[in-house]
Amino acid sequence: MAEVVAVIASTHHPFYYRASTSTGEDRPPFADEWVRKVEAFRETLTRARPDVLVMVGSDHFHQLWLDNMPQFLVGKAPVYDANWYNEEREFGLPRMRLQGQEDLSAYILREGLDAGFDLAFSNELRIDHSITCPIITLRPEADLPIVPVYTNIFAPPLPQPKRFVQLGRTIRQLVESWPSDQRVAVIGTGHLSLELGGPRQFGPHGPDPQFDQKAVEWISSGDIEGCLAEVTLDSLHAPGNATHGFMDFMLMMGVAGEGRKADYVDTYDLFHTMEAYFTWYPEARR
Amino acid sequence: MSKYLLNKFLFTVDRDADLVERYRADPVGTVAWWEAEEANRLLNCVGAEKSTWLAFEDEERAALAGHDYPKLFELGAHPFLTLTLFIAMFERDHEEPLGFQLEYARKLSHFSLPYPDIAT
Asked: Do B105 and A156 count as a contact with CB atoms less than 8 A apart?
């Protein structure tokens, strides 16, 4: 059976690419430390020697639209083109092309449907920065095949937080029962407190540092129960109007497992939002 | 209320470089053209399969035609769509990094929780 060799949860910050590649006067003062932190985080994936990446993210109204909106969608294609004109325009992100691990996509879809998740699928999916940001930070060679999993954290009505946790648990079980000898890393990105297009956006810190502190504690200690006891679809409006992206972190807590402390934790307090990086090594604990 | 249609305008303009420029230069004309020609286009279908019922309400049309992003926020347009498109149109007019984004926040500063509902 396949092995889950690393579980990684991270914020995705579309400004990292430009900040890390800019030079001279264009290079922001926070870039060097950011690059240092990201490279240390990258090493946590590299040392797990993965063959395949399951990538959890959320389309930002690029391909998925309100006339036909899935809650949870799995890409099943041999190739994924990546990044969009408006991401190139606003963030300077490069166009990318990733190979797909189609047999694992097929397995997750079939077995996921049979396990009670009515997953949507796409045979032609152009992925966006929710998945390419962690490729850029964690695997800039972009040389490993992926299975993209999209969640709806963006267009209400949204699934409940517990559903994200359950999907994470199911993804873990499915990857571990996949009849293959591949080494799989599951990587998901979301947000801590975040405001986009509202009065609290682009402040000197994230909009709710207290929430961020609590969130980092939940994630790093694997406190799914405590997190589910406090986080609701309504409560997530308070820390910032785009904070529902935190539910992708909750999904990743489900992948990592109840009570599983993260093996690697780092954060970086930036303007606009706090960066947070977590890695678990399931095999080390067996 | 046609929040969906407001979002559809923002979505279809934001993804088209020519339309972004056209909306920046001529908001009244672009909104009128879009409502007449594009509002009922089903995005994943051929032109003959148009919808028949989508139209802006007066204050929605006026908010779009006036580049009035605080009003769009009040009307429940999706804040991510509004922000992304307006950055594309107006960030260039500000010299300081994040100058437009911070002005945008200031112009919305009279809103407090709960924000207008964005569910469509």
From this structure: no
ipTM above 0.90?
A: yes
B107 to chain A: closest CA residue: A199
For chain A, how long is the longest CA-to-CA vector?
Answer: 55
Q: Do A201 and B17 touch (CB under 8 A)?
A: no
The pTM score is 0.97
Q: What is the mean pLDDT of residues A131-154?
A: 98
Distance of alpha carbon A171 from its chain centroid, rounded?
14
Q: Which of A60, A199, A203 sits opposite B108 (nearest CB)?
A: A199
Q: For residue A77, what are its two tokens? A: 């294609």
* Chain B touched by A60 (CB under 8 Å): yes
Name the DSSP letter for residue A28: -
Q: How many CB atoms lie within 10 A of CB B77?
A: 26
Nearest to B73 among A60, A61, A197 (CB): A197
Distance CA A108, CA A60 (A): 23
Judge whether residue A284 has pLDDT over 60.
no
State phi, psi for A151 to the nearest 5 degrees.
Answer: -120, 155
Name the minimum distance, in Å, from the CA of A181 to any CA of chain B: 39
**3-state SS assignment for residue A261:** coil
Q: Using CB atoms, which residue from B42, B105, B109 is nearest to A67? A: B42
| Digit-coded pLDDT (tens) for B97-116 | 899 999 999 999 999 999 99
DSSP string, B50-105: --S-----HHHHHHHHTT-HHHHHHHT--HHHHHHHHHHHHGGG-SSTTHHHHHHH
What's the rounded Cα separation, in Å, for the pair B21 and A83? 21
